[in-house]
């Protein structure tokens, strides 16, 4: 009896485990269901034969980055369903693992209807994405975006400048919607206004005046004229010597990389002179503090950073502020783009992400998805995200927000609609928003307006209205995509050596020649030239 | 003279061992101290072995996060279901391949060894999970980790050390194969099973990457993923300075360093709680199967 009961127990246990297994396996449906769900836009099953395509809710899956833990009380899906008739099911991956997850989905073809692309800052489409495009996995959005009625149908998406839509092209076709964009002008040169006043130094307008000011404001080792870190973030000054923002291409299709252009040696010489005059921290390459912290801690008298960072304002909580270590009365002043021998020291922005649509989505459903995206970046949606539909997230009257309102907005996860978004704001619009919320002082207002006017002029005149062309054409050069890092392995080291005085300019010239004249580099330039000319 | 030398020798050894022990213990004390320190007295970069002022702010922030309970449920399910399942699969298969009379044994062993040497990589694994219909399910994390070549080979070696006479006498007494395995073999395997139970439990509890790749619904993610997100969400910049801490305090926010330490403690608790009960088996089990008699 005892033997039998033991055997029965074992048998029942095994059967139980098998049942759990079978139940779990059937939970996600069979393979056919999985395959049909993956990568195919599925309008909700037609209930009534008389309901039109437009009226039926569209069910889509959207793969994106999860920047914060997902809230179980998120209201975003309900909001989208109510306002756009699209039922969105979000699929997430944490920021660090998103590239791996997306690459796996691209390689296996198991793509949702809408997904975020997040390449590095140098190109719009990585190798894996180019492969997916060539395999027909991405929807070609060109017929929609370049249609004459695009701005009528999608008024908010139409606000994205052509220069940024061009960056979303591959082989002349648009395969994604730019997202997470900054205004075209990225950064400005900030200096310690209080120190300039104290030392009777007028605002520098060119590289010579800037050098003199930086050297005069240096008080090594307490403070250095300018901040530099191991990533050489002061490279925003380099275009003043090269007139190249990263890369440039002439009308004949000849490409030139800023670091390997003739003017760059003059920039390195300039930085070396600052270093020798103790205007740069000799331990900058050790990475103790980043360039921004050096400025806010009072360790340097200047830095390059976003132009809206230190705008003087009356609110107690400006965008960023100085630490106590910077001393009392520390204030920042934004210089107009510094004029150099060949151009102005200024870098333009681009975007880091874009939204792509699965090629299996029908044209009609693609239009509906774009309508949804267009609504997300509309004033109406942005108002709901900021204030709530009934003022539950922020008070409209005085723009204040209580702790409870803040918690509720987090609970409802409204940030899902504002992050990774194709919302584009030009510099003026961005500044108007800051002016309203931060109560900018008249002095600050004049400073920013002057900078933005000057910056626009630089883009129009110095750069012929073009942003960095590499973002548009890099995908065409497999050598660039796959071997650029290998070709430029020693670039930063050589730059640092020249700045530190450990290498001469002649050594730098030899290094540049060794790279530029190499077969691989020439092959890359040839591919880029061919790509550029093919798309003119 | 000899005694003096002996005591000196013992003293030196003791001192060195105490030093090494302190090196091992201080980081844990630091983690605990920072996690229980009040944010108002916390100074970034300062070394703590005891909180200056006790506080549970960091734990409150982590434990009251909306998705924390979902993540805890996910981790508990994966660990509590996965560990016994893994033990069942590994022990039964290990027992099976320990039998020299099993038809096709050599081929099975070769296949197992093959997986030890070669890994197909992420994409074929994803395709397999996809074809099995396990995407977005906790089973996508449990089943692939339910056994592995190393575990099977170690258990096989252990089972082979057990005398065959035990099984023969059980057969004579009327036991079938399942009863022999359950009543005779398994009770003798407490040591290796406890060791592998700990390995599997720790592995399942620490699941991160597989969960991210195979599970799309963020509310089904296990604890490791959610805790990492919570810490990153609060991490305003890499190097904390007093001004940033002050800003965070003004917003009643918890400094990221404290959150990280609290995360480490929360994740550590289950393993630390279980380990003392398995320790006596663990020491024995680690070497099991490594020597074949």
TrEMBL record, chain A:
SUPFAM superfamilies the UniProt entry points to: Periplasmic binding protein-like II
Keyword terms: Cell membrane, Lipoprotein, Membrane, Palmitate, Signal
Xref: PROSITE patterns: PROKAR_LIPOPROTEIN
Stretches for region Disordered: 35-55
Gene3D superfamilies documented for this protein: Periplasmic binding protein-like II
Residue stretches of biased makeup (Low complexity): 38-51
Organism in which the protein naturally occurs: Cohnella silvisoli
Top-level taxonomy: Bacteria, Bacillati, Bacillota, Bacilli, Bacillales
Lipoprotein recorded as keyword: yes
Pfam families membership: SBP_bac_1
Coiled-coil residue windows: none
Leader peptide range in chain numbering: 1-24
Record's protein name: Extracellular solute-binding protein
TrEMBL record, chain B:
Subcellular location: Cell membrane
Protein name in UniProt: Carbohydrate ABC transporter permease
InterPro entries: MetI-like (IPR000515), MetI-like_sf (IPR035906)
Protein family per UniProt: Belongs to the binding-protein-dependent transport system permease family.
Main location: membrane
Keywords: Cell membrane, Membrane, Transmembrane, Transmembrane helix, Transport
Pfam families: BPD_transp_1
CDD domains registered for this protein in UniProt: TM_PBP2
Domain of life: Bacteria
PANTHER family, per database record: ABC TRANSPORTER PERMEASE PROTEIN MG189-RELATED-RELATED, POLYGALACTURONAN_RHAMNOGALACTURONAN TRANSPORT SYSTEM PERMEASE PROTEIN YTCP
ABC transmembrane type-1 domain location: 72-278
Species this protein is from: Cohnella silvisoli
Gene3D superfamilies, alphabetized: MetI-like
Membrane-spanning intervals of the chain: 12-33, 68-95, 107-126, 138-159, 180-205, 258-278
Membrane topology: Multi-pass membrane protein
Record flagged with keyword Transmembrane: yes
